[in-house]
Amino acid sequence: MNQWSQTQNIASLQNHMKTKLLLLLTCTSFILSCKPSVNSAGLYGKWDYIKIEHPTHDRPDIAAAELKQQGASIEFLKDNTFVIMWGGNALSKGKFTAAGDKIQINESLPDGTTRSFAFYITKISDTEITFETKGSENSRVTAVKE
User: Fold this and answer.
1) Strands 102-108 and 73-76
2) What is the DSSP letter of 57?
């Protein structure tokens, strides 16, 4: 093999490796950018809880049968208010905004004050959502749309 032929083979190999590296970087970027994303309109409606998990502490998870019996749900309304129902009563209510993978909650408390926190969406489709709070006593909720 002459020197010109070897140089061509090396150049061809380098181009092949660059193409593979570019493809790998593109795929990695795509995978990393595939976080759930939602806006407020994508949440409107009533979502029935089917599972509540407590991944970082020892409180027991709540099974679907109990959630159904309690009528556990969250409803997002078009005026960007929400209500969480439990046992036929409003457990929590207030205002919300949604963007990206976060639902920002501004809960109205009985004494007239508010508290703010976020639900982080880990999975969403037209019919099912999974969201969780962060912190030492986080909860993860899975709900299906009515």
Assistant:
1) unpaired
2) S
Alpha-carbon gap, residue 33 to 28, rounded angstroms: 9
For residues 101 and 36, the answer to whether their CB atoms sit within 8 Å is yes
Nearest to 133 by CA among 92, 98, 96, 102: 102
Burial label for 119, CB within 10 Å (0-12, 13-18, 19+), is: buried
Token code pair at residue 112: 């007239």
Distance of CA 125 to the CA centre of its chain: 10
Which fold would CATH assign to domain 38-145?
Answer: Lipocalin (2.40.128)
For 68-98, write each residue's pLDDT tens digit: 999 999 999 999 999 999 999 999 999 999 9
Q: Are 68 and 77 in contact (CB under 8 A)?
A: no
pTM for this entry: 0.75
Task: Please state the domain extents for the chain.
Answer: 1-34, 38-145
